[in-house]
Structure formats: structure tokens, C-alpha cells
Input
Amino acid sequence: MGQQELDIIEKLADVLKNVTKDKSHHHKHHKHYATHFLLTISYNGLKITSNKMSVSILDTQSVVYTLTPVDANGNASTVAPGSVIVSSSDTTLFTVTPDPSNQLSGTITGVPSAVGSGSLNVSANADPTGATTVTITGSDVVAVNQPVPPPSLAVGFTFSYGTPQAKK
Output
């Protein structure tokens, strides 16, 4: 594992240390419906799950996300099939490609030369039968950065000379 990957893991660990158990939600919910989502970020075999986190990627990187609908008690729940909509708040920073075989997973991809932060937005119908519409929403921060350029390798020489002096 390179330094860049270790830096990303360290940043994610710092974010998780500051996670709060905020249970305030601005959406409708019923006892048996999902009330919010948990986000799982997977990178090089490391998985981190939280209801409040952010992810930082380079403009040349992609990262897989997995959403878990949860009920008011934080237990895994379900949503209506085909109802999950995931999007980028700014497609000039990053794009979102949902997994066609799993509506709760997909890939976030940085846009080359992009720098900045945007939101990963998600909404779904919390009624797993689809008989009624109970919309739940969530969002998370995605930061896109440029790689730090490596020190330049030597490619030649420059010459410097002192002031000419008379021979002694």
C-alpha cells in the first residue's frame, strides 16, 4: 500500500472519529420503513460504513459505494425495488454510475482536472412494497483533488561560474 492510499485511509479514520449519532431527519418515516441510509466506501479491500462521512478521491480515481437503508433504530431495512436514485450534485467534479445489478451500489469517478467538493445525493421509496410513496433522502460529501506531483527527476545540468580572477 502506497503513501497515497495510507493518506486516504487516515483521512477517513479522522472523519469517523468525529461521527456523531445525529438522529434528526427531515423526512417522513414510519416504524416499519427505512428512515435513512448508511454509506459504505470500499477502497483496496478496506470497508468503512457510517451515516455521516465523506470521501476524498483524486480526479483520476474511482471508489465503490454501497448504501444500506436503515430504520429509525438503525437496523437494516429495505426500500422499493427500482426506487433508488443516486446522483452527483456537480458532474464537473465527479460522476456516479449505479450498479445495474444492485440499486444500492455503484461507482463514484473523479473528473480529470477537477478540484472541489460536491454531494452524493440519494432518494428512494421507503415502502418496500411500493404500495405507497414514503420518500427518504440522504447525501454525503465527495471531495475531488489533484494528485501531489512527485519531485522532478534530474534531466540534465545547469552550470554556474564564479567571477573570473587573474592567474596567480
Observations:
- The beta strands are 36-43, 46-50, 54-58, 62-70, 85-88, 94-99, 102-110, 116-125, 135-145.
- The longest helix spans residues 3-17.
- The CA atoms of residues 59 and 112 lie 5 Å apart.
